[in-house]
Amino acid sequence: MKKPLIPLLLLSFLVLSCNKEQDPFEISKQHIGLLTDSTQVKDLKLVFPNDSIVKRIGGDEFISNRSNIEILDKTGKKLLELEPAEALDSTSVIQSVQIIDERYKTDKNISTISTFKEISDNYKISRIDNLINSIVVSVNSINASFAIDKKELPSNLRLDMDLKIEAIQIPDNAKIKYFFINWH
């Protein structure tokens, strides 16, 4: 009598767990809310039905061929900035997403208001790139890049772009300037 009950309980658990609603502010390696790494530009209205979608088209193709797309909430607050893999192509997938709104968080509670310590405590740092005005901390496990302004670093690390910066040299309280999820 117990044997038919176990498969029935397992099936019930599976059905109930599948009905879990997707958190619209959850960030993972392959999705941000309902936006996935395979979402096409033409489907953005389905992903963001209650938000405004603003397509920015570059005026000079010789300077830039980017056509970034801004996602704004009902009040006009900017949530995300999307960059399609192909400019002006409605079938293109999204290549990168800049997280603007602090409500977007990873499963480890990392958002635009997190510090370097919170990132390094929760994820393995894959690479640190030294740029002119910032460093970029990459976390491959979630396809993320975090730009930190060099003003957050000790003065001896700010000017030399050839300097290899190690995670231990970045202050724990260094704030994130930009947070990107990169796909494709």
Quick gist of this model?
The protein is of the alpha+beta class.
Main β-sheet description: 8 strands, antiparallel
- Strand segment tally: 12
Mean pLDDT, all residues? 87
Counted by DSSP, the helix tally is 3
Structural class: alpha+beta
Radius of gyration: 20 Å
Order of helices and strands: HEEEHEEEEEHEEEE
Query: Roughly how many Å apart are the termini?
Result: 52 Å
Determine the CATH topology.
protein yfey like fold
Q: Low-confidence spans: pLDDT under 50, at least 5 residues? A: 7-11
Domain count: 1
Strand content: 25-35%
What is the assigned CATH homologous superfamily?
Answer: protein yfey like domain
Short descriptors:
single chain, protein yfey like fold, alpha+beta, two-stranded parallel ribbon, 12 strands
